[in-house]
Amino acid sequence: MRYFWGAVGFLGVALAVIGTVTPVVPTVPFLIMAAYGFARSSPRFHARLMNHRLFGPQIRQWQDHQAIDRRVKIFSIASMAGGLCVSYFLLAPKYWLIQVAVLTLVSIFIVTRPAPPANI
User: Fold this and answer.
1) For 97, phi and psi rounded to 5 degrees?
2) What's the DSSP call for residue 52?
3) Do the beta carbons of residue 86 and residue 22 sit within 8 Å?
4) What distance in Å separates the CA atoms of residue 115 and residue 20, rounded to the nearest whole number?
5) Where are the domains of the chain?
6) How far is 20 from 17, CA to CA, in rounded Å?
7) Are 15 and 25 in contact (CB under 8 A)?
């Protein structure tokens, strides 16, 4: 089972890397998935992920409070909107409307998450 969770962790990291360069693909949710997998398979990789200077605090905020920082909310929704604008010119209307629907639901989810406590 340890190998399975390790594979989940590495898959999450790989998808997060793709998400850092693709505006429509998220990053932090895949890192949360990776942290979950590494917590069950590799304390070393879990510690590296949790201590990452950029993503570690966001993962901890989610794990501890299921919260998303306001700046992260704004950046993620703006990135999705930018990707949606680009895909308007690249996708057939039917697929673009599917993307609009999915990103609208994701945006609603992001906006409705609480902000982390101020003492973090």
Assistant:
1) -65, -35
2) -
3) no
4) 22
5) 2-112
6) 5
7) yes
CB 68 within 8 A of CB 61: yes
**How much is the pLDDT for 98?**
95
Beta-carbon contacts of 29 under 8 Å, excluding residues fewer than 6 positions away, are none
Per-residue CA distances from 53 to 17, 50, 57, 81 (Å): 16, 8, 7, 26
pLDDT tens, residue by residue, 16-50:
999 888 766 778 889 999 999 999 999 999 999 99
Q: Using one digit for the tens of pLDDT, what is the confidence trace for 58-105?
A: 899 988 999 999 998 998 899 889 889 999 999 999 999 999 999 999
Q: Which residue has the tokens 């998400």?
A: 19
In single-letter form, the type of residue at position 10 comes to F
Residue 120 has pLDDT above 70, yes or no: no
Contact in structure between 83 and 26 (CB atoms under 8 Å): no
Tokens 């793709």 sit at which residue?
18
∠ CA 26-28-33, rounded to 5°: 105
Are 95 and 88 spatial neighbours (Cβ–Cβ below 8 Å)?
no
